[in-house]
């Protein structure tokens, strides 16, 4: 069976750095931090009182005020990003003849945590008859791709991937597979999350997973730094439009990059901690290299074997700023790339936007594609005192202008779930 080549023809993002892709990307390259004190609820009793919040987002620019009031924040992000994605891909709408071959596959880790909290309180204090009929529909994570499909009239594959922090990249991998295997021509994919709530912060604080640097929030997310003390929660959405090469060329689309492979693995080790030797992460990255080579070989005869490690010229790391993850991911990169690991510039987007959980892979994949398009690599900020065990090139000095051919993007989640995807520069 010959696999179809899959290209990227559109990107969109809503992040703590901006309410669209262009603003977010510009601020990321400048090394700005989107982390600030939490303003949406009383944090006085919480150990952590800051997060990477989306600021000034107006959902009524993309939907009716009535719909905006009913929906959970993660759903409004999905709808807004879907509409921006369509525009970025040069489409006014999905043509009727393409609707049944267009799907939505979006990652989301937790869903509507805020409505869950509010509904439980109402149930306890006012009784079951006061529970809103919208409580369940707007809480469930699959409402993100569901509502996006309604907005776009995308009637092909429609589902959510929920695999903790790997949700977004898992979605991209499976959306890629749908097109490569011929099940769809267009896929809207990526990740979304909005869980900056009292329960979300309290839950992660109870696990001692969050930074508590309340006196200096903008410097709290510090991947690979010796003084890191936990991750910073963020929120937002990042989407990609994938198309088969034939479909994109037939409509004269502006092709941004090619997705050439992706893979996943499991640590089979611990509920929340990664395997300390990085073996599970390494398997995901190694498998992604192999699938990249296989897809390219079968579709264009460019290769007869897997992609060599030396072909990866940039890594967008998971890099959560937790004591365990950063060391483990560094070990995994060394396992996969050997001596070449020291020659690969590695960026940590979470140093500026925080950890978007299920939305992380979508946003960071969009930024990875922008690195290929604009030939510039974002910095890792707040890396002031490198951890001796984290001794690779993490771009701490500011953005770096560099033309690269292949970017590897990583996401690793609780439960020991790992995902890696590879994007390649499009040269026509």
UniProtKB/TrEMBL annotation:
Active-site residues per Swiss-Prot or TrEMBL entry: 165 (for beta-ketoacyl synthase activity)
Gene: fabF
Any single GO CC term annotated in Swiss-Prot or TrEMBL for this entry: cytosol
Pathway: Lipid metabolism; fatty acid biosynthesis
An individual GO BP term: fatty acid biosynthetic process
Annotated protein name in UniProt: 3-oxoacyl-[acyl-carrier-protein] synthase 2
EC number of the protein: 2.3.1.179
Single GO term (MF): 3-oxoacyl-[acyl-carrier-protein] synthase activity
Family according to the record: Belongs to the thiolase-like superfamily. Beta-ketoacyl-ACP synthases family.
CDD domains: KAS_I_II
Annotated catalysed reactions: (9Z)-hexadecenoyl-[ACP] + malonyl-[ACP] + H(+) = 3-oxo-(11Z)-octadecenoyl-[ACP] + holo-[ACP] + CO2; a fatty acyl-[ACP] + malonyl-[ACP] + H(+) = a 3-oxoacyl-[ACP] + holo-[ACP] + CO2
Transmembrane helix listed as a keyword: no
PANTHER family tied to this protein: 3-OXOACYL-[ACYL-CARRIER-PROTEIN] SYNTHASE, MITOCHONDRIAL (PTHR11712:SF336), POLYKETIDE SYNTHASE-RELATED (PTHR11712)
UniProt KW keywords: Acyltransferase, Fatty acid biosynthesis, Fatty acid metabolism, Lipid biosynthesis, Lipid metabolism, Transferase
Chain ranges of the Ketosynthase family 3 (KS3) domain: 3-425
Functional note: Involved in the type II fatty acid elongation cycle. Catalyzes the elongation of a wide range of acyl-ACP by the addition of two carbons from malonyl-ACP to an acyl acceptor. Can efficiently catalyze the conversion of palmitoleoyl-ACP (cis-hexadec-9-enoyl-ACP) to cis-vaccenoyl-ACP (cis-octadec-11-enoyl-ACP), an essential step in the thermal regulation of fatty acid composition.
């Amino acid at each position: 069976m010959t696999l179809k080549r899959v290209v990227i023809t559109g990107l969109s993002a809503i992040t703590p750095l901006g309410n669209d892709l262009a603003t977010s990307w510009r601020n990321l390259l400048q090394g700005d931090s989107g982390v600030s004190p939490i303003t949406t609820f009383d944090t006085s009793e919480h150990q952590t009182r800051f997060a990477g919040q989306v600021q000034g987002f107006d959902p009524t620019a993309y939907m009716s005020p009535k719909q905006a009031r009913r929906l959970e924040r993660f759903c409004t992000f999905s709808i807004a990003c879907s509409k921006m994605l369509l525009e970025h891909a040069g489409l006014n709408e999905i043509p009727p003849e393409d609707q049944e071959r267009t799907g939505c596959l979006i990652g989301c880790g937790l869903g509507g945590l805020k409505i869950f909290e509010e509904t439980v309180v109402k149930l306890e204090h006012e009784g079951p008859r006061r529970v809103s009929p919208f409580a369940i529909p707007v809480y469930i994570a699959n409402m993100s791709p569901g509502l996006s499909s309604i907005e776009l009239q995308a009637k092909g594959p429609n589902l959510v991937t929920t695999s903790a922090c790997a949700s977004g990249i898992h979605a991209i991998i499976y959306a890629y597979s749908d097109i490569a295997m011929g099940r769809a021509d267009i896929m809207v994919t990526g990740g979304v999350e909005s869980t900056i709530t009292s329960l979300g912060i309290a839950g992660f604080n109870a696990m001692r997973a969050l930074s508590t640097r309340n006196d200096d929030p903008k410097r709290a997310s510090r991947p690979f730094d010796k003084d890191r003390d936990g991750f910073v929660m963020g929120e937002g959405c990042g989407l990609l439009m994938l198309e088969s090469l034939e479909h994109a060329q037939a409509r004269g689309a502006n092709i941004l990059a090619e997705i050439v492979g992706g893979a996943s693995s499991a640590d089979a080790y611990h509920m929340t901690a990664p395997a300390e030797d990085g073996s599970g992460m390494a398997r995901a990255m190694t498998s992604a290299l192999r699938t990249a080579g296989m897809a390219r070989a079968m579709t264009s005869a460019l290769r007869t074997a897997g992609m060599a490690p030396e072909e990866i010229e940039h890594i967008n790391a998971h890099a959560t700023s937790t004591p365990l993850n950063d060391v483990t991911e560094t070990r995994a990169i060394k396992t996969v790339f050997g001596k070449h690991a020291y020659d690969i510039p590695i960026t940590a987007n979470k140093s500026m936007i925080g950890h978007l959980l299920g939305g992380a892979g979508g946003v960071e994949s969009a930024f990875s594609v922008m690195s290929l398009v604009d030939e510039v690599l974002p910095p890792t900020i707040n890396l002031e005192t490198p951890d001796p065990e984290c001794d690779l090139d993490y771009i701490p000095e500011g953005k770096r202008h560099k033309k690269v051919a292949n970017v590897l993007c990583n996401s690793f989640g609780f439960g020991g779930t790992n995902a890696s995807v590879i994007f390649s520069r499009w040269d026509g």
